[in-house]
Specification:
The protein has 747 residues and is α/β, with parallel strands linked by helices. The protein has 23 helices and 17 strands. Bound molecules: zinc ion (ZN).
C-alpha cells in the first residue's frame, strides 16, 4: 500500500516538473494544451476589485431569507450573470421559515438575572447597528415553548455526555439543559436533550472555543466578544434537509404540504443560543458535582453539572411563516454536449450581514463565472453546459439547493456530471472534500494553482502545513506523501441534495486556517470584520476562483470524464478495515468493562461521598460477517485496476464511442445510491457518505453499517453489510460496462 502511494507521488511530480508536456487527466495532449492556455488567460483576468465591490453591496444590509436585501441580492446577481452571457432565471420556492416573535430567558430566585439576548453596536463596524433589519439571535426550527425548571450542564450535549451524566447520577428529565457549542452540529444538542427528557435547551459559545481564550475579541481582534451569539438552525437535518413541509419534493406555491405538527425535523423543545455574558450567571447558579476536566470551559468559574439552585424560565414564540426564497440559476449551454451539466454553487443568504459566510465564497464564484463568460464571448468553447447557482435559505437547512434539486431531480439524474460547492473562504490552506473518484483529478488542479502568500502551489503549502502543524502520527503518515486525500462529505452546506439524495459526484472547496475568528453567525460577520481579519485584499478569494474555476472548466471540457476508480476503491477498503477494527475494539472494551462491573471495581473505586453510579453491563458484541462485502471489494479492485489500465485508450476512441463511455462515467456515482435510503432516513440514499445521525455535520462513511455498529444494533449492521455489498457489486458492473466500451474498440 505504502509503495503504491509512493509511486503515485513520483508520477505526479514527474508530470508537474515537465509541465510543458501538458498532461491533464481526461484530456488528449492537444486539448490539454489549449485548455492550459485558456486557464492562463482565465487567471490573468480575475480581479480582486470585483470581489471587493460585490461584497460591499451584498453585505450592505442583513440578507436572510425573506429580507429586502436578500431579494435585492438575487436580482443584483441575476443581472450580473445575464451581462456575462448566462441564461439566467430566479427560481423561487416557498418554504417554512420561522422567525422570533418573543424571546425571554431569566434566572429566578435570590439572584435573578434577565438575559440581554442582544449584540452590541460597535462604532468600528458600520453594519452592526442595523438593528431593525437584523434577525435576533435564535435557533431556527426550535419549538414554541414556555418552560420553567432547574438547569443542568451537559457539556457539548452529545450522547457520550449523557452517559457521563448518568454515571454522576444526574438526570435531565424535566430540566432545562445548557450545552456548549461545538463537538457536534448544533441541532444534535436539543435532539439528544429531548430524547433524555429535557424540556428546554440553551446553547452558548464558551470563550474557550472562539472567544477571549482563543484570541483578542472584536473589534481589537477577530474573536467573539462577550455578547456575540451564534445563530443557527436546529432542524433535524440528518433526517432530511430542505423545507420541512415538503420532504423529497419541491416546495412550489401549490405543493401539498405536511401539517407542521407532524414534521419530524422540527425540534420538540424550545432552544435558544446565548452569549457567554448571558451564560455566566446561569452557570454560576449550578451546584452539584464539579464537571469532569474535559468539560471545563474558560469562564472564570468552577463548572458544576447542576442542577441549579434556582430555576430558569425560558419562553420562546415564533412566527411560523411561509416565505419566498430566491435561487439564482445561470446557464451557459455547452457547445458539444449541452445535456451534460457541471453545476457550481455557493449560497447567497446570510444569518445577518454574512460577509465570510457565505459572501466570501459567493463573490469568488461570481468572478469565476464572469471571466468564463467573457472568455466564451472571445471564442473559448466549453463542451458541456455550466450551471452557476447562488442558493438562498442555506442557513436554515439547505432550503434553496434542496428544493431545486428535488424539483429538477429527473433532469439532474439524466444530466448532472458533478456538483462543485463552496461556502465561506479565508486566508490559509486549501480544504477539499468530496467524491473520491475525483481525488487524482483534484490533485492536478491543486498542483496548478499558486498560493498567493508563498508562491508555491496550494498543494505544497497545504502539505507543509499538515506536516509541520500535524500531530506526530499525522507527520509520520504524511511525510513524503503530498497527495491531498479528499475528506468525506457529511452535511454542512449545499451538496446534500446533489450527492446524498441524487448521487451526483460532488466536491466542496475552500481556503481557511489563517482567518480564524469568532464572528460566525453573529452580527459581526461583516465587511469590516472580513477585510480586516479574514482575507485582506481578497487574495484567497481569487485563489478560490482559480481552484474552483479550473475544476469547473476542466470537467466541462474533458474528453473523457476524469474519474478514478482505484481512489474510490482504496478509500472504501479503508472504511471497511476501520469498521472491522472498530467492531473488534468494541468487543474487547465491552468484555473488559463488563468484567470491571461484575467484579464490583467501579463500586469500590468511586467516592462514597458523591452519589456517582456504576455503569451497567452492556450486551456482548457478536461477530459480524463481512465476507460478502470483502468479496465485493475484491471484484471492485480488479475492475477498477483493469479500467485504470485502459483509461488512456478512452482518449483515442472515436467521438461516438467516447460519448457512450462518458455517458457511463458521469453517472457512476448514481450506482452508489440505494433508492430505499438509509435506516430511519430514507431521504439520504448514498451508501458511502452521510451526515451522522448523532453528529450532524460530522460525516459517517458507510453510514448504514457504521451507525448500526455504533448504536449496537447488530441486526441492522449485518443487514447493511449485505446492502452495501450489493451496491458495490452494481457499481463494479458499471465499471465493467465502461471497460467494455473501450476494449471493443481498442482491441
Ligand atoms: Zn454558509
Amino acid at each position: 500500500m505504502r509503495k503504491q502511494i509512493f509511486c503515485l507521488t513520483v508520477f505526479v511530480c514527474v508530470l508537474s516538473s515537465f509541465s510543458f508536456a501538458q498532461k491533464i487527466m481526461g484530456f488528449t495532449e492537444t486539448n490539454a494544451k489549449s485548455q492550459v492556455d485558456w486557464e492562463k488567460k482565465f487567471d490573468e483576468q480575475l480581479s480582486t476589485k470585483n470581489l471587493d465591490t460585490w461584497m460591499q453591496f451584498l453585505t450592505s444590509h442583513p440578507h436572510h431569507v425573506g429580507s429586502v436585501q436578500g431579494k435585492a441580492n438575487a436580482d443584483y446577481m441575476a443581472n450580473l450573470f445575464r451581462s456575462w452571457g448566462y441564461q439566467t432565471e430566479i427560481a423561487e420556492y416557498n418554504v417554512l421559515f420561522p422567525t422570533p416573535k418573543f424571546r425571554q430567558l431569566e434566572l429566578l430566585g435570590s439572584k435573578p438575572y434577565k438575559a440581554k439576548l442582544e449584540e452590541a453596536t460597535l462604532k468600528e463596524d458600520k453594519t452592526s447597528g442595523q438593528k431593525t433589519e437584523q434577525l435576533p439571535s435564535y435557533n431556527a426550527y426550535s419549538a414554541d415553548g414556555d418552560v420553567t425548571a432547574e438547569l443542568v450542564f451537559v457539556n457539548r450535549g452529545i450522547p457520550a455526555d449523557y452517559d457521563e451524566l448518568e454515571r454522576m447520577g444526574v438526570s435531565v428529565k424535566g430540566k432545562i439543559v445548557i450545552a456548549k457549542y461545538g463537538g457536534s452540529w448544533r441541532g444534535i444538542k436539543p435532539k439528544v436533550a429531548y430524547e433524555h427528557g429535557a424540556i428546554g435547551c440553551l446553547i452558548y459559545s464558551d470563550p474557550e472555543d472562539d472567544g477571549y481564550s482563543a484570541g483578542d475579541v472584536y473589534p481589537e481582534g477577530p474573536f467573539r466578544p462577550k455578547d456575540g451569539v451564534q445563530r443557527g438552525s436546529v432542524m433535524d437535518m440528518p433526517v432530511y434537509p430542505g423545507d420541512p413541509l415538503t420532504p423529497g419534493f419541491s416546495s412550489t406555491k401549490d405543493a401539498k404540504r405536511l401539517d407542521r405538527n407532524t414534521v419530524v425535523t422540527i425540534m420538540k423543545i424550545p432552544v435558544l443560543p446565548i452569549s457567554y455574558e448571558d451564560a455566566l450567571p446561569l452557570l454560576q447558579s449550578l451546584s452539584g458535582a464539579v464537571v469532569p476536566a474535559a468539560w471545563r470551559g474558560s469562564l472564570p468559574i468552577t463548572y458544576h453539572v447542576g442542577p441549579s439552585k434556582d430555576k430558569v424560565h425560558l419562553k420562546l414564540l415564533f412566527n411560523w411563516d411561509i416565505k419566498s426564497l430566491y435561487n439564482v440559476i445561470a446557464k451557459l449551454p455547452g457547445s458539444e454536449l449541452p445535456d451534460e451539466w457541471i453545476i457550481r454553487g455557493n449560497h447567497h443568504d446570510g444569518w445577518v450581514n454574512g460577509a465570510a459566510d457565505p459572501t466570501s465564497g459567493m463573490v469568488a464564484e461570481m468572478e469565476e463565472a464572469r471571466v468564463i463568460g467573457e472568455m466564451v464571448k472571445k471564442g473559448y468553447k466549453l463542451k458541456r453546459t455550466l450551471v452557476y447557482c447562488a442558493w438562498d435559505g442555506e442557513e436554515q437547512g439547505l432550503l434553496g439547493s434542496t428544493e431545486w434539486a428535488e424539483d429538477h431531480q429527473e433532469e439532474l439524474r439524466k444530466k448532472a456530471v458533478a456538483y462543485i460547492n463552496s461556502d465561506g473562504n479565508s486566508r490559509g490552506f486549501i480544504g477539499a472534500a468530496g467524491s473520491h473518484t475525483l481525488e487524482p483529478f483534484f490533485n492536478e488542479i491543486a498542483d496548478a494553482v499558486i498560493d498567493p502568500q508563498t508562491g508555491v502551489s496550494i498543494k505544497e503549502r497545504r502539505y507543509a502545513n499538515a506536516v509541520v502543524n500535524g500531530d506526530r502520527a499525522a507527520r509520520a503518515r504524511l511525510l513524503g506523501n503530498k497527495n491531498i486525500k479528499l475528506g468525506a462529505l457529511g452535511a454542512g452546506s449545499d451538496w446534500s441534495g446533489f450527492l446524498q439524495f441524487l448521487g451526483i459526484a460532488s466536491l466542496n472547496l475552500g481556503f481557511g486556517g489563517e482567518g480564524s475568528g469568532g464572528e460566525y453567525h453573529s452580527i459581526y460577520d461583516s465587511y469590516d470584520h472580513f477585510v480586516k481579519f479574514k482575507d485582506p485584499g481578497f487574495q484567497y478569494g481569487i485563489a478560490l476562483s482559480k481552484t474552483a474555476g479550473r475544476t469547473t472548466m476542466r470537467l466541462a471540457n474533458a474528453d473523457v470524464i476524469p474519474i478514478d476508480f482505484p481512489s474510490l476503491q482504496k478509500t472504501i477498503a479503508d472504511y471497511v478495515t476501520e469498521l472491522k477494527m472498530h467492531t473488534e475494539t468494541m468487543r474487547l472494551e465491552t468484555e473488559t468493562e463488563n468484567k470491571l462491573i461484575n467484579d464490583k471495581l467501579y463500586d469500590l473505586a468511586k467516592d462514597p461521598k458523591k452519589g456517582f453510579e456504576s455503569p451497567k453491563p452492556k450486551d456482548a458484541v457478536p461477530f459480524l460477517n463481512f465476507s460478502n462485502l470483502e468479496n465485493a471489494m475484491v471484484q471492485l479492485k480488479t475492475s477498477a485496476e483493469e479500467f485504470q489500465k485502459q483509461f488512456g485508450n478512452g482518449l483515442q476512441l472515436p467521438a461516438d464511442k467516447q460519448k457512450e463511455l462518458n455517458q457511463i462515467l458521469f453517472k457512476m456515482e448514481r450506482s452508489l445510491i440505494n433508492e430505499k435510503g438509509l435506516p430511519r432516513r430514507s431521504w439520504y440514499k448514498h451508501q458511502v457518505y452521510a451526515p451522522g445521525f448523532y453528529t450532524g455535520y460530522g460525516v459517517k462513511t458507510l453510514p448504514g453499517i457504521r451507525e448500526g455498529i455504533e448504536e449496537r444494533n447488530w441486526k441492522e449492521a449485518q443487514d447493511n453489510i449485505e446492502i452495501v455489498s450489493k451496491t458495490i457489486e452494481t457499481y463494479t458492473k458499471e465499471i465493467q460496462k465502461a471497460s467494455g466500451v473501450i476494449s471493443k474498440k481498442a482491441f
